[in-house]
Amino acid sequence: MLTDTRHLENDSLIQGDICIIGAGAAGVSIALDWMKTPYKVILLESGGFEYDEKVQDLNGGKTTGQKYFPLKASRLRFFGGTTGHWAGMCSPYDNVDFVKRNWVPDSGWPITRQDMDPFYARAHEILHLGPYNYDFNYWQKELPNLNAFPLDQNVVWNKMWQFSQARFGEIYKETIIKAKNVHLYTYATAVNIMTNPNLSSVSEVTVKNYAGKTHKVRAKHFILACGAIQNARLLLASNSQVPKGLGNDRDVVGRYFMEHLEIASAELWLLKPFPTDLYSWHFGVTKACAELAITEKVQADNRILNGTASMLPLALGRHTKSRMEIWQDDDPRKSLEKLFAHWDEAAKEAEKENKGNITRAYQFSTRIEQSPNPNSRVTIGNEKDELGVPRANLHWELTALDKRSIRRIYQLIGQQMGVAGIARVKLMDYLADENDNSFPDTTNGGWHHMGTTRMSDDPKKGVVNANCQVHGIDNLYVAGSGCFTTAGAPNPTLTLVSLSLRLSDHVKIKLS
Questions:
Q1: At 448, is the secondary structure helix, strand, or coil?
Q2: DSSP code of residue 281
């Protein structure tokens, strides 16, 4: 069922059993999971089904610290959310991502990879992926020419990826609208959360839109699924009853913002051609491929973070600018156009050089977790958006462990390439000085917002518990990558959908 709240009578009351705030990957996944239940589900979407400049402007805010993308352009505000322009890269988090690591500050989830496995399998169906199998030997039998570099698998291993073409706004629009028990409300931006007098339970949520309408939503359970930055913003801005904001008794809401550092890091020079499709990815074509990763034991021995190395022909890499340089327009559509245009031009320039030894040379690019850092955070300031909500401000702060880990990953890969006698690895200049912990302004994020409402059994270290319930508020939950305790190496969508399904099961039990 679909309702445009701009057309409702002002100050209408919307009621249901659960209220999901946000119709991106997390929110839609939960709504789909409730379709065959007897409960009334309210799904609130800030925008409509297409890009709306006034709605998109609600994302706007300031950034400080390490250079970052404009906040307005780093997320999409309409049904389906940022799956509207995601690349579809999917791989589960590793065992090491969930455990406490004494060299990684504030690491350790209150759940394990084994706890997540059943939900990873279910998420595969929602994301239209292949079998829940990321074993290299399996895919080598399934696909041709997946020849692996002959490296010591006890040091460097092949982490497999699958690719989704699921644009939630396209594939699930009609399903959600036609669902008898799911009530989708568009142009319904949540602006405030109210609780009972002792702050132990949410009583109602206020929503507004640009038509000047204000409505109230009441439900038995509320799930925030607005993305890591906006979830934190809404909790902080809901400060009429408690000055610090809801769930923020220990000043943790908004802290530990994490991104994936994505940056060109080294050159790989093969001594002779190595025929393989294992390390190549072609959008819309590749079913599975691999990136090089460091094993859990070697990470521990070297006290480094978890990351992966992908390959791009060196000629193309040398002509490709950082996404951080290009994606700086407040309008994400314009930034995307500029990015595609630049990639086309880079490919043309690279083709001119694609001869001789250059065909055996590649650029290594890193995707690596960011070390949890309480100073990397989302706050709110005095400036408000047109609906009266304080805008989010992001301070992105990196650490020495982040940079040392990148350097060490390529030293280890380089050693293994040398032992195998197949290639040499050359570090980029910015990694040469081991005493320099700074990152260049060209350092990319993956548009992967994580943390800010992190999971921990200790309220001093987290905003939600192992079931994604906000500490101290019995009917308020957070869905999505904001709950991640650490960032892992893979793109977050598969894991955030899986975690959302786990949360969904928990709320069903509480309602039964």
A1: coil
A2: -
Task: State whether residue 472 is helix, strand or coil.
Answer: coil
Phi first, then psi, for residue 159 (nearest 5°) are -90, 120
β-pairing, 18-21 with 41-44? parallel
DSSP letter, residue 259: -
Q: What angle do CA 28, 379, 376 make, to 5 degrees?
A: 90
In terms of pTM, does the model score above 0.85? yes
**C-alpha span between 83 and 98 (Å, rounded):** 25
Residues of the chain with CATH 3.50.50.60: 1-129+167-260+372-398+447-512
Contact in structure between 248 and 352 (CB atoms under 8 Å)? no
Q: What's the length of the chain?
A: 512
CB atoms within 10 A of CB 291: 25
Q: What distance in Å separates the CA atoms of residue 372 and residue 480, rounded to the nearest whole number?
A: 17
The fourth-level CATH superfamily of domain 1-129+167-260+372-398+447-512 is FAD/NAD(P)-binding domain (3.50.50.60)
- How far apart (Å, rounded) are the C-alpha atoms in residues 389 and 206? 11
Tokens representing residue 419 in the block: 């032992």
Over the stretch 197-216, which tens digit does the pLDDT of each residue have? 999 999 999 999 999 999 99
Whether residue 500 contacts residue 480, with contact meaning beta carbons closer than 8 Å, is answered with yes
**pLDDT, tens digit, for every residue of 374-413?**
999 999 999 999 999 999 999 999 999 999 999 999 999 9
